[in-house]
Amino acid sequence: MDHYPYDLQEQGDGRIIELLRPLLTERRAERIESILDRRTYNLTAALDGLGDTGNMSAILRTCDAFGLQSVHVVTTSPGFQIGRRVSAGSHKWLDIHPHETATECGEALKAQGYQLLAAHLEGAIPIGEADFSRPTALVFGNEQRGVCDAMLAQCDGRVLIPMEGFSRSLNVSVAAGVALYHAVCDRIARLGRTGDLSDDQRRALRERFYRRSVRESDMVIRKANLS
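Above: the chain's sequence. Below: its structure in token form.
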């Protein structure tokens, strides 16, 4: 199973990468390669009905920090607008896939071969019992209502973070951070790695990251007649 960034079909023969590489510092180029080494499409997050822009933005920041390249968002979520101050610009490095309904989102993920695991208290197993070595979408729902019934109907299972205190649950952005960190650690334990990009995926993302790292890169590309 291969998951690709939206603009992969526009990725050319590497000429843009060659054009922009001299405009990057050595440190920046090495940083990009290091990030590509740890990037994956085989772990993703699906955000269903989040009401708070800050929570959504914080989860996007977490996804980028933990090496997830894609995030799926139900666009009817009230918090769909991204707060740049909270996301710290991380959204510009990610593939954000919009879906009009929870059903559409779930069906799209299932069609791509993901197992869907909802962060949900009822009927759930501790997250430590889940297997994240296979392609997995962790689903996070509304701050008050949780994951909606339409999305739950698409899910293969439900997971929870065991609580040791009086609180039964965490804020959704905190829960996402804990759950995604656990999923990444589980993948390392089972697979020995986090990143698993194909050569095509890596090349496409390298071009995108170069474009977004070089000031006025679009103008540079146009001047070279490569746009």
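The radius of gyration is 18 Å.
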